[in-house]
Design a protein that fits this description.
Blueprint (H helix, E strand, L loop, with lengths): L19 E9 L8 E9 L2 E7 H5 L7 E4 L4 E4 L1 E6 L7 H13 L2 E6 L4 H13 L6 E9 L7 H5 L8 E2 L2 E3 L6 H10 L4 E4 L5 H13 L4 E4 L7 H7 L3 E3 L33 H13 L2 E3 L14 H24 L4 E2 L14 H12 L4 H15 L17 E4 L13 E6 L2 E4 L35
Parallel strand pairs: 1-4, 1-5, 6-7, 7-8, 8-10, 8-11, 11-12, 12-13, 13-14, 14-15
Antiparallel strand pairs: 1-2, 2-3, 5-16, 9-10, 16-17, 17-18
Helix pairs in contact: 6-7, 7-8, 10-11
Amino acid sequence: MTDEVSGAPAPHAPAVEGTVAVYRGATLFDGTGCPARPGTSIVVDGQVVRAVGGDAVIAAELPADARVFDLDGGFVVPGLIDAHQHIATPPDRPAAEAVLRRLVYSGVTAIRDMADDLRQVGDLARATLVGEIPGPDIRYAALMAGPGFFDDPRTHQVSQGETPGAVPWMQAITKDTDLPLAVALARGTHAAAIKVYADLDHTTVAAITAEAHRQGVPVWAHATVFPASPGEIVEAGADSVSHVTLLAFEGTDEPLTSYKHKPRVAYERFAAGDDPRIEDLFALMRRRGTVLDATAGMWASKALAGDGPADAERAAANTELAAVLTAQAHRAGVDIATGTDYETDPEEPFPALFEELAFLVRRCGMTPAEVLRSATLVGARSAGAEDVMGSVEAGKLANFVVLADDPLRDIENLRSVTLTVKRGHRFERRAFDGTGSGARRTAAVPSPEAAEPGPTHRAEETR
C-alpha cells in the first residue's frame, strides 16, 4: 500500500518504545509474594517495565532524558484484573465503553470476558489495545455448550442475524461435531480461551479440553456443566472453573440432568465449611493447578437482590454458601481469581471488582495481601497472561496502580487510586468523569451467568 493513513485517533495508545518514565518514591507491593518495599522506583520504557529497584540505585543509572514522577510515598500495586466480565450481552457499544472507561480509571488493567457477542467484543478489545478508547486489555472466550442450551434467549442476543449455536463464537457441540474444526473456528475469533458452559457430559468436556489444549487454547468452564460434575470438569483439565456456588453440586445424591433442571442445593450440608467431598475436590484442584473464579460476592450485590422476600432469602442463602465455600477453598490452598459477573450502577464511582475484593476479606478469611495477589497474579494466570502481567517486574507490561493510602492495611483503600498506568499510558483518576457519554449500563438484561434460562430471566439458582 502506498497511500497508508493513520486511521482513527488513538489518544490512549500505549507509550512508545524509547520513551522512558521513572516512578520513584513508592511503597511497592509487586505481586510476586515479596513484602511491600518502601523507597522503590519503577523504570518504564514504552509499555514495558525495564527495572525495579531502590530509589538511590535507580537514580544513579537514569538516562538524561527520562521523565521522573515523584510518588511521595504513595502505594503502588500491580494493575487489577477482573476475571469475570460480560460487556456485550446484548451488544451496547456506549454502555460497554462506559464500563471499560470506569474500569481502567479505577486501576483495572485487564479483564476476562466470559463469552458474549464476540463481533463487538473483538472490536472493543482492539480499540482498548491500540488506545482508541480508554479501557483494560480484554481477553475473551468463545463458548461451547450442548444443543439444549441454545433456546436460551441470551444466545439470540449475542448471535443477532445468525443462528445461535452455529456461529464460531458460540457453538452447539454434539457427538458428531468435528472438534478440531470447532476449536479452530473458535480460535478464528481471536478468542483467548474456550468457555465450556452447559449440557455436556464429562466425556465431551474432556474431549473439548484435550483438543483445545492440543491447539494451544485454555479452557474456562462453569464449575458444573450439567451433567458433568465439578470433579469431572477438573479431571478433564479445565484451566479455571467459574462460580463457587456451582461447586455445591459435587457429590450430590440427585442426578445432574441438565442446565435447566438443577437439583435443590443442600445449603445445610456446607454450613460448617468442612464438607469432605468438597475438601477432596479442592485437593484435586490444588494438585491440578485449577484456578477458582469464585465470583463470591455476586449474590450480595444490588444487581442480584431481586424483588420480594423470596428473592432476598435466596440471595442471602447463596451469599452465605459462597462465603463458606470460598473460605474452604482458600484454606485448602486453591488459587482464587477475582471475578465479578455484574457491575455496579453507572452512577457509582468504582466498579464491582472493589466489592468483590472487600467481600473476600470480610467474609472469606483472606487478608488484603492475599486478595491483592488474587486480583493480580492469579488473575493473570486465569487469563493465560501471567508471562506479561499480574506483577510489577522487569520485562512485564507497565501495568500498575498508584494509591494514596495503604491497601494492605485496609482493602477499601483501593478507592484512593490517583493514577493507573496501563501499557505505559497514564490514566489520571482526576480526569475520570463517571457521568460521561454512554455511562448507562444495560442492567435490565442479565449477563450469561446472571439469568436462568426461560422467559422470566430470573437469576440462576447457583449461577
